[in-house]
Amino acid sequence: MNKFFLIGIGGISMSAIALILKNQGHIVEGSDMQESKTTKMLRESGINVYIGHDESHIKGDEIVIYTAAISKDNPELVKAKSMGLKVYERAEFLGMLMKAYKNVIAVAGTHGKTTTTSMIGYILKKALLNPTILVGAFVKQLGGNFCIGSNEYLVAEACEYVDSFLKFNPTIGVILNIENDHLDYFKDIDSIKESFRKFALKIPQNGFVVANLDDENVCSALKDLHQNVIYFSAKTPADFWADNITSCNGYYEFDIVSKDSKVLSHIKLNIPGFHNVYNSLAAFTVAYLLGIDTKIIKETICKFGGASRRLEKIGDLDGILLYDDYAHHPTEIQATISTLKKLANGRVIVIFQPHTFSRLKSLMPDFVKSLATADKVIVTDVYAAREKNVYGISSKDLYEKLKEAGIECEYISEFEKIAEFVLKIAQKGDIVATIGAGDINKCIELIFQKSPVKS
User: Fold this and answer.
1) Strand partners, 32
2) 41, 246, 328, 332: which one has the fewest Cβ atoms less than 10 Å from its Cβ?
3) 279-310 burial by CB neighbour count: b if 16+ within 10 A, else e?
4) Phi and psi (nearest 5°) for 342?
5) Are 122 and 262 contained in the same domain?
6) Residue numbers belonging to the annotated binding site for ATP
7) CATH number, domain with residue 175
8) Where does ATP bind (predicted)?
9) For residue 455, is it within any domain?
10) Residues 272, 178: one domain?
11) What is the reported pTM?
């Protein structure tokens, strides 16, 4: 039995690690900047959580784990290092944890990681394989953002930021797509592709990589790879591909066909958006290659209800539908708005919160292009996350660019005023959607609070 201290324990991944360690019989405690549902849940699970960071929390007998968002001058981190304690960054420690599992399925890609990881985990659970699952959002059908199972299967998201996923030890890799992102760390698209290639090279010869044939960057990154690469496609025959694709109001159904032209299954998705054709193809491919019965795979995918903040319908205010989505990259935003357009009887009104200054600066023209597909856009201040604004950019710059492009938009800094404005302009049949990876979803709570009509 060891004692662990987690700096930033309230984070979605850190909290899951804390509970896994607790379940293994270790003593676990940690700290976070603010109280939350997660910190309260951890306390209820017997984990001591400090609010605020102080060097006095480190006693000298702990193994310390910290998130990449923690600054180098964090007093707990400084104290741990000065005492010569074992200190691990979250991804590094998660990579060590993975060594205890026989089959480690790591899901990578610029977009779709959470949904695909959730789908795969849910399939394995329904197949009674008792998986351990780590996912970056609350998933109702999993009962949370993690499941603690046996050491036979671990399913986890694999993020490329700061090459985190290169610290993992997967036996099965999934690469959904590769695009320009995290340009505060990566130099360009070639350096991003190289990182994904290194991720694929970590897969052992007795494992396999499931990859998107329709993504040019994925194919380029995996060219001449000696690993066993299995391709899926929604456009052309592949190892596994979607044929006879049809849609109704943004919901898709299709046949899954093998490379020998055999129809393996017919899928009717319970979550909207064409991007989920790809996510479900990847999940089906992994499960099929693991030998899971196709009936179980089909039933599970068709019943899958999605993860929180992934095109999530929050409520209905007298015919005004409210949605929340975690999209923070232009491609994701365009996919979200495109899907909402198919679901709406009226306008699609987007409340957008940019996530990080570096992303806004490096992808500004793409943000303008993707947001232009909405009927009206409300822009609010950048969610800085780990960054300080050394980039000389703000949400007002995005607002000005949108205005120049002739897009109907507003810049409103305060969430309370956003809620009041939305309630003035939204009409029956409209969809109001909060979009962003920060705390923009709080606007929906305020809209409900201020509305004279209750859902």
Assistant:
1) 51
2) 246
3) bbbbbbbbbbbbebeeeebbebbeebebbbbb
4) -75, -25
5) yes
6) 109-115
7) 3.40.1190.10
8) 109-115
9) no
10) yes
11) 0.87
